[in-house]
């Protein structure tokens, strides 16, 4: 826990910190269905605890899927199968501006799966104590959350045809994002992370005009209320909007494997930490342990060459459920044994 805190603060560390984005992988490791992992806080917590005790990463994640906030707002969700992630189903929650007014004030103690997730967070914190840095995933930043409750196609049309409605929806989404993030902090999180990948689909200009201001607002509100570092996760090649992400106010930027880290280090200032960015499929799931060592060494050397001290070695996105144990061991051991890697 202390190692990751120091790494994110730019303080000297004895070795690189490592914290893969293990979510559904934890369920597979424990041999439980995604349905049980998603709906039973005791099971979710036990899966994360087992994962940590087997691999001993420096950081673990508390997350279930990308529909926690949408469900809390009233969106209909369902499982396609017992071992498939929960997702949206049926008609969108938001069709007209009047629907926005029907969304209740957020209450993390009672709505949707929020109480279940908070219980899981408290159980993980109690079981692991100060051993590990605990990342609480508050699900989605406002624009991505708006796409979940309204439908991405409808949102994209409304961005052009009814921007006032979209801003009203984003305001309500921001309230939900902040409420959940602050509740996770109270339950024991060391860092708060959310995804904003739908915003990247807007293109740089509209991202700056529509999505970014609400990311800035949310981050500022969370930091003011919790004092914890806040992270911004972006799937895909984030290079076109990287400078804008820098201006979000996030303390940490999570980069996936499609973003070239040499380019990223030229844009991201050294006071912002980087979390990433090994390929979770081609390298972690399908590669060999030797591939993992090479990829980890390259990432660490890229950070060092850029003078970027604030980083955590990780998968660029969530681990695939079929990731071999030996590959995950290789990644974590690479951080522990650096620079003595062959």
How do you describe this structure in short?
By secondary structure, the protein is of the alpha/beta class. It has 17 helices and ten strands. Helix 7 packs parallel to helix 10 (163-187) and helix 16 packs parallel to helix 17.
Largest sheet: 8 strands, parallel
Helical stretch tally:
17
Side-by-side strand order of the widest sheet: 1-10-9-8-7-6-5-2
Strand/helix succession: HEHHHEHEEHHEHHHEHHEHEHEHHEH
What's the mean pLDDT score? 96
Unreliable stretches (pLDDT < 50, length at least 5) are none
Principal-axes shape call? globular
Give the structural class. alpha/beta
Give an overview in words.
- The chain is α/β, with parallel strands linked by helices.
- The chain has helices spanning 2-9, 24-30, 34-39, 41-55, 68-73, 97-101, 114-128, 142-150, 152-161, 163-187, 197-200, 204-226, 242-246, 261-267, 280-285, 289-305, 325-337, and strands spanning 17-18, 59-62, 77-78, 87-88, 133-140, 191-195, 230-234, 252-255, 273-278, 311-315.
- Strands 1-10-9-8-7-6-5-2 form an eight-stranded parallel sheet, with helices on both faces. Strands 3-4 form a two-stranded antiparallel ribbon.
- The longest helix is centred in the middle third of the chain and has 25 residues, at 163-187.
- The model has no long low-confidence stretch (mean pLDDT 96).
